[in-house]
Design brief:
Layout: H1 4-12, H2 26-42, E1 47-51, H3 53-56, E2 63-69, H4 75-86, E3 91-92, E4 96-103, E5 106-113, H5 118-132, H6 134-146, H7 152-168, E6 173-177, E7 183-185, H8 194-203, H9 211-217, E8 225-227, H10 229-232, H11 235-239, E9 243-248, H12 255-261, E10 269-272, H13 273-276, H14 283-293, E11 300-304, H15 307-315, E12 319-322, H16 329-341
Helix pairs in contact: 1-7, 5-6, 6-7, 8-9
Length: 342
Amino acid sequence: MLTKDELDFLNKIPADKKVNFHSFDPKVVRMAEDLIQSISNIFPDLEVKHMGASALGISGQNDIDIYAFSEPKDFEKFLPGLVKLFEKPLHRHETFIEWKFKREEFDVEFYLTTKDSKTMKKQLMVFQTLKNNKDLLKEYEKLKESMNEKSFREYQEKKYEFYHRILDNKIKAIIFDLVGVLVLKKEGFIATSPDEINAQNIEKEKLNLSDGEIKKALPYIPTKFERFEKLWEILSDLKKQYKLAVINNGNSIALRYWKEKFDFGIFNLYINSGEIGLRKPDPKIYLLTCKKLDVKPEECLFMDDSLENIEAAKKLGMKTIWWNKGENKEKLLTEFKKLVNS
């Protein structure tokens, strides 16, 4: 159901107004980067963000949406410099100031705005959701293309409905991968002792070892890992809002030692593939986790360092964050916090 503000906006759109979409043009991004740089040259500490279809790399109205974030009490501090760049604003409101102008063939909308308004929070959440989910992004682009040269009012209504659908499925559970997300390999760790080397072979399921060698090596399997402390520090707060689970592709014989080294008591559920005979990316292991947590897949946020595992979760409708092994973990943590604290 649309909100009163959304319905009011729809009623203000002229009935004969049409919408026209164009294929994504990389030049739009370069133009947006130039505009952002011109702002940063004057206000280096001002947070500026390119959003909208052009920032997502999809078909759109050949326009550029740029937002600079500030508390309303500080608007006057930035206004003179922005007026020099973009001339006088078109509108001034309590929570934002709006400019509209043209740069070459592109229409530009620039906002100096607070992040804390209900509308802005929703826009940021929609943008982040689409950026993180390629399937939803494709669906959004198809919606736009299907409305080309049709009623702008009808398009805006369908867009609002799409936004509600992707946001109203609120996250109820967060599912973590173990190695690569919750725990990371110790920097500079090298297996040197026979037991440490054998432990690595057990992890890789190279079990051409004697029973005695396996027994001695098992306690060493988790020793090369350490908690990603900044993530673990926020688990207790997350537990107040979400159900928490772990899905680990691991063997069952070492599970005891993982649990001795790392206390998983904060989690509602710990799924070990070796115990249940299922491994990621088999959809059954995700669905089993959802069943045990009593949530739907679309109500879950799943994080893993394997792209294959991420893609499998997406196909079930889960929201995902890929903890790419080459990505900065602090950056990924920030992205995660934005998603769960929005």
